[in-house]
Amino acid sequence: MKASAEHNERMAKMTFASVYPHYLTKVEKKGRTKEELHQVIEWLTGFDDKKIGELIDEKSTFEFFFEQANLNPNASLIKGVICGYRIEELENPLTKQVRYLDKLVDELAKGKSMVKILRTDR
């Protein structure tokens, strides 16, 4: 599925604070922890717990969120389909980054080991 301009704009304007509780609920329902979720977010973005909290409190858009991020050089190793979109085929950089995060959260909820999620087994 190809992401439309409207889809890309919607992703940019969505707030991290509006999605974060869904991420947390998803992973906790599957027996994973908030700490593990934060570890995954930190691996992708470089944000520690304090910064994650600030971005939530400020109701930062994903556009601002990823402008502030120091994206992990191994992020391009995140591949596959999430929400009907093949990550490696997404053309808009921001939409791709949001889907990277979605995919990592999904892998965490599905019980993958942190070594595999954080792409450190290479």
Task: Describe the protein's topology.
Blueprint lengths: L4 H9 L2 H14 L4 H12 L3 H9 L4 H7 L12 E2 L2 E2 L6 H17 L4 H4 L5
Antiparallel strand pairs: 1-2
Helix pairs in contact: 2-6, 3-6
Protein name: DUF2200 domain-containing protein
Which key phrases capture this entry?
122 residues, mainly alpha, Helicase, Ruva Protein, domain 3, two-stranded antiparallel ribbon, 7 helices, 2 strands, 3% strand, globular
Explain what the structure shows:
The chain is mainly alpha-helical and 122 residues long. The protein is globular, with a radius of gyration of 14 Å. The longest helix has 17 residues, at 93-109. It has a two-stranded antiparallel ribbon. It has a single domain (5-116), classed as Orthogonal Bundle (Helicase, Ruva Protein, domain 3). The chain is built from seven helices and two strands; from the N terminus they run H-H-H-H-H-E-E-H-H.
CATH class annotation: Mainly Alpha
Which word captures the global form?
Answer: globular
What is the average per-residue confidence, as pLDDT, rounded to a whole number?
A: 93
N→C terminal distance: 29 Å
Uncertain residue ranges: none
CATH superfamily assignment?
uncharacterized protein sp1917 domain
Number of domains: 1
Number of beta-strand segments: 2
Largest sheet: 2 strands, antiparallel
Structural class: mainly alpha
β-strand amount: under 5%
CATH architecture: Orthogonal Bundle
